[in-house]
Specification:
Residues 278-402 form the ABC3 transporter permease C-terminal domain. There is one protein chain. The chain has helices at 3-13, 19-60, 77-84, 119-122, 155-161, 201-204, 212-219, 238-249, 258-261, 263-301, 303-311, 316-352, 359-362, 373-390, 392-399, 403-406, and strands at 64-68, 90-105, 108-117, 132-135, 150-154, 168-179, 182-196, 207-211, 227-232, 253-257. It is built from 16 helices and ten strands. It has two domains: 3-58 and 264-406, no CATH class; 70-251, no CATH class. The chain has a six-stranded mixed beta barrel. The protein is α+β, with helices and mostly antiparallel strands.
Length: 410
Amino acid sequence: MRFELFVAARYLRAKRRQAVVGVITGISVAGVAVGVASLIIALAITTGMRRDLQERLLSSTSHVELMRIKSDGIRNWRPLLDKLRHLPHVTAAAPGLYEPVLISRGARSGGAIIKGIVPAEERSVSDLLGEITQGSAAPLSESGPAILPPIVIGSDLADSIGAEAGSTIMAISPQGELTPYGLVPKYQRFRVAGIFHSGFYQYDSSFAFARLTDAQALFGEPDVISVISFKVDDLYHADRIGREIEDAAGAGFQTTNWMEQNRELFRALKLEQIVTFIVIGLIVCVAALNILIALTMMVMEKTRDIAVLMSFGVQPAQVRRIFMLQGVLISVVGTALGLVIGYVAAWAGGHYRFIQLSADIYSIDYLPFAPRLIHGVVVAAVSLGVSLLATIYPSASASRVHPAEALRYE
């Protein structure tokens, strides 16, 4: 062990006449530990929120959507669909017809969006039909007319109107049809074949799936779709692939992708992560001030010891390193404790999901944790760096002690 490190460690272990220095040192270690643990937990939460929201968005919706610039829908869509699904980087494609409706059951009602689908193709671009908690989505695959067409609705929508698998609901389209008495809304009774729960409030509270032919009949749109949804092999290049799909589709079409649709959400999450790091990082700065105070008091207490060491030939630079290493040791112990506490707490939170959230506010129903190794590296570097800066003044003061003056009255 180097001489400076040996003396620094000895000073930290030795019993001091001034107990207040030891208390401040303990507070400094605890402060660094709390700051580091808080940063690890906060970064794990913000990363978990981003990860879970992105995963649920990507599992619940397509990567790219193609639609007409005009709102008259896509006609003669089958040849176009066959052409586009064979484009490079496109792994799956499915037709869909979106329209807003009012869904009611008895006196209870709620707004929703019905998507007319071809189930076999829809499953290739969205996982919502795989999240059935009541009933089954199998009736959507049945062909032919039915007295009550099947429909699959979200769990929160089902709760709001009091529906369950097997219930009969009514969907009222605002499109309506023109009669001698004016515009009369069209309506259709459906049988709830299944209820899905994705955990993503936006979909669970407002989405419903019906057969494409039933949706076209309800909306008065024979053999018309409003969108073609795509899954691509590189979701982070969905914008570039979307432009290639636009070019292949020809004039009059435009695409949107999952990044464009959720840009503000992910931008807000990124900003939240940065602000959280800065705000909670102030705890580490407060702990660094405690290190500065503890070392300053240590220098005042050990003035005679410093003078004796310097009279034995210890160089001022060595004295300065002794107190810098003392501060670094405090920081290392606190940082190590903080990393252990932070990662254990983040793992426990992610594994047991003991913190529940309101899904209608946060879009997910539990607080996710996603600790990353890189976060520990960055937080440890910041903690050690700030603590090292806090040692500069007291260590410099120690190196300027004059042995003759310090020992004059001894």
